[in-house]
Amino acid sequence: MAAYILRRFLLIIPTLLGIMVINFALVQFVPGGPVEQIIAEMQGGGDVFEGFAGGGSDVETMRDSSTDSYAGARGLPDEFIKELEEQFGLDKPPLQRFFIMLGNYARLDFGESYFRKISVLDLVLEKMPVSISLGLWSTLIAYLVSIPLGIRKAIHDGSRFDTWTSAAIIAAYSIPGFLFAIVLLVLFAGGSYWQIFPLRGLTSDNWESLSTYGKIVDYAWHIALPVAASSTAAFATLTLLTKNSFLDEIKKQYVITARAKGLSESKVLYGHVFRNAMLIVIAGFPAVFVSVFFGGSIIIETIFSLDGLGRLGFEAAVARDYPVIFGTLFVFGILGLVVGIISDLMYVLVDPRIDFEKREG
After folding, report:
1. Do residues 215 and 259 both lie within one domain?
2. 12 part of a folded domain
3. How far, in Å, CA of 155 to CA of 246, rounded?
4. What integer is the mean pLDDT of 189-207?
5. Tens digit of each residue's pLDDT (9 = 90 or more) over 12-64
6. pLDDT band at residue 7 under the 50/70/90 scheme
7. Could you tell me if residue 112 is inside a domain?
8. In the listed set 88, 105, 134, which residue is the last one of a domain according to the structure?
9. DSSP reduced 3-state for 58
10. What is the rounded CA–CA span in Å between residue 265 and residue 151?
11. What's the pLDDT tens digit per position in 277-324?
């Protein structure tokens, strides 16, 4: 098992390299950049993308084909434009910039944000607890609710309880996470109905002055709605996955044999069926966590004004803050790959009969 884990960790390096290569290449073809952003602001445009929405021939592209200068920058000195390019490191060829970035990343130097004047590593460390907290709580709540509910649905398959809970689960799954988040805000966070939960943030302004118990309550009060919004889809999927997994195991011969030996129903279900049925549910843990952490974090953090990695990456993409974009992608990639390895370890913990090294052989 140790050799398998070592190989998985070594595979992280080429996987991350592939992620960075693809995203760096895509950035080269995306219109707009940090220099264009500054030019648009100086020219009073407010946003570089307004240049792509217009219909005039002078603003169809950000570079004029005849003068090779930035469109909209004709009133600015060429020396100023060159200084901006040097400041952002854009005066070098793309391939050279990519290898410089890889060398810096090898030393855990992610550079400095173009517009925030703070190191990317400090920014990521500042925002990461919010996103990880949201992702872990959402995944944990989804598992704590889905597994008991799925088991009960499997035991009472076809009953009235199974029918109405399935209808509720399908309805919950069909509602987009961002729409459910807005509904929660309107209903419970000062919309047209009740002011029960806070509208934004993860803690109150008086957080530092609260007692330990007060801090726990305040944190739970703030994170309740974001967790509810981000765990809805995962909750529905996990419940049905648990139910179907249990139904498949209950029909197998070893369950019939255990019952024939006189074992109680609880011992059959939780002593034999549970361990085998949970393998596929545990296998879905990385997908659940990654879907919440990657897909949900951007939308949920933006709607609930949570200052996390998802919102940071979104704002960096809009502003073309390349160091922050690549830094957050690097962190997202690391977390996703490590969570996959943790999932394999959980496989072995639940069922020691699994040997990944023999499977690979």
Report:
1. yes
2. yes
3. 8
4. 78
5. 888 888 888 888 887 777 766 676 767 666 665 555 444 434 444 333 344 44
6. confident
7. no
8. 88
9. helix
10. 13
11. 777 777 667 667 766 766 666 778 888 888 888 888 888 888 788 888
Look at the chain and report how many structural domains it folds into: 2
Whether the Cβ atoms of residue 112 and residue 119 lie closer than 8 Å to each other: yes
- Would you state the structure tokens that stand for residue 272, as one six-digit string? 């034999």
Q: What is the DSSP letter of 270?
A: I
Using alpha carbons, select from 269, 282, 259 the residue that is nearest to residue 350. 282
Whether 142 and 76 share a structural domain: no
Q: How many CB atoms lie within 10 A of CB 166?
A: 15
The Cα 43–Cα 46 span in angstroms is 8
Residue 208 has which token pair? 């530092």
Residue with structure tokens 């059959």? 268
Q: Do 170 and 291 reside in the same domain of the chain?
A: yes
What domain range is 27 assigned to?
A: 2-88
Global confidence as pTM: 0.69
185 and 321 fall within a common domain: yes
Residues 151 and 277 in one domain: yes
Amino acid at 304: F
